[in-house]
């Protein structure tokens, strides 16, 4: 148990990353009931936007200056692609049966991957991403916090706070809540629901760009394949936390991240479970947890009862 | 008796007639295409991951085969034959490899194929090539079962596919060699073994572990990672808290590079060792963390150090290829060259023409091929494995792989 604090830190950092991406799934689902499977690729494109920005900066720029610019550059790329996807792929299908936009999203995800693969210079192999120099923070005798992990652990709560304030306090945020509750009545009250939907896509994409920068800084590389698996995990986090609820996305992400880290470290120490532990089984345990949670609370940890919505 | 001789006579006549007509049509065909100047075209297929995270290795394989074909054409190695290559991308996916194998089999001009890179992909291709009697020479597959059957470990090696050959030594040789180096030379006693659950990685890790324990070392823990995942921090922390003095990773460089970096980020100053799957510059450039001290075994002596390889390196540079020849360039060149030599033998036996059953003849001739190649003496044993058992340990020093020990493996 000596390594517990370390594993908790690993799980939190991984979970915060899942949570930031999960925001995109949950916001879009909350408003248009669409599972935007292309969101993993929006995350990936955010990473490439950030890297492009970094490469355009004069060499020798310190990361302190570069990171905010990279986040902005990544967000411009991801928001542009996400809003374009909404306008040209999803909006024409607004009234269609729900399966149509879902399949569109899967197709879009493949298209976006192939576009980056084919047209971004040298993207056929992983590209190196700037990393923090310097040692990790030595917090406790048995707890080292890496700089990239510290970065996301500070940034994710700040982003959540800003989003929470925006949704509950601002005019657009309240319009967003109204649209989520009842789009038809919201429209009658004079809310431009199309604008609100675009806004939901844009906010999700911006969060994904932040996550992509944090991911790149941590792993030191990005690649065209990186969105698929992470997107799937983030979607799981959104369902786990209660899809449609922005705080649920973050809670679900953190729970999922912790479950993975702890199952890698401790399942194999349970007598008789040695074969079922370690990195090979982490995803299995994460999904076992998901199923258990959904059996007890079908609406997810913080989700609303589905019947309330209907 | 009379019946039998009649049968043989008919068979000979028919074969002869078919050969003549086939040759005629083949010549016409190549004249029709115009650019080969009356020569018969022989295509050497290439199957490797040309895109995706393993493309650094795949491109090196493709370019080296291309260089071998061009060299053979320039030297007029086989009179009357013009070599061409057809390179297909398998993205390290077994299903793609099988589709590519089918495609190569379907092209009658293909008389041999070089590839693939991954043992798992090879499994899906062997059967296709075997049915078509088409020779396959892999420059990089190291799983012993591919040539010696599933029971190789139980002392019952049996050749499964007569068309399968390889120019690199198997994991048995490599895993044991790594264990011997880590225990005897690097003086490490407690190793943590991680693999990626793939045919190559898991096999190599198991062979390494057995030999390391046989020598007297201790495998202090094991874990597995999933290909294409990137967060191994929990595994890295387990390694650190286990008190291991070294890590052995069975797998490829995309995950290996990240794993090594993440172990070092935890503050554990221990080296990661792996097989030829991590012996690539991309292992070091996977992320910014320094990899100095990490080790890898690879097959053969360093290409740069072999006198036979000097010409290869010069020619490769002169060829103007965009990507480096990477870990398997020399083996790929030798693999292609062995096919060229087999074609040469077949053509020489048939009065300077390709026989009708060229594929079967080439496969037959492969077992007799013997020449001094880029990586040393190239020939194949009764399983289709290389007879060359030279290995080298490389260490990362100042951000680059440097050879620290080369030896011929002894069991």
From TrEMBL, chain A:
Membrane-topology annotation of the record: Multi-pass membrane protein
Superkingdom in the source lineage: Bacteria
Keyword terms of this UniProt record: Amino-acid transport, Cell inner membrane, Cell membrane, Membrane, Transmembrane, Transmembrane helix, Transport
Keyword Metal-binding belongs to the record: no
Predominant place of localization: membrane
Sequence intervals crossing the membrane: 12-32, 39-57, 63-85, 97-120, 150-167, 196-216, 247-267, 279-296
InterPro entries: ABC_transp_permease, BCAA_transport_permease
Protein's cellular compartments: Cell membrane
Family as reported in the entry's similarity comment: Belongs to the binding-protein-dependent transport system permease family. LivHM subfamily.
PANTHER family in the record: BRANCHED-CHAIN AMINO ACID TRANSPORT SYSTEM PERMEASE PROTEIN LIVH, HIGH-AFFINITY BRANCHED-CHAIN AMINO ACID TRANSPORT SYSTEM PERMEASE PROTEIN LIVH
Protein's name in the database: Branched-chain amino acid ABC transporter permease
Organism this protein belongs to: Streptomyces sindenensis
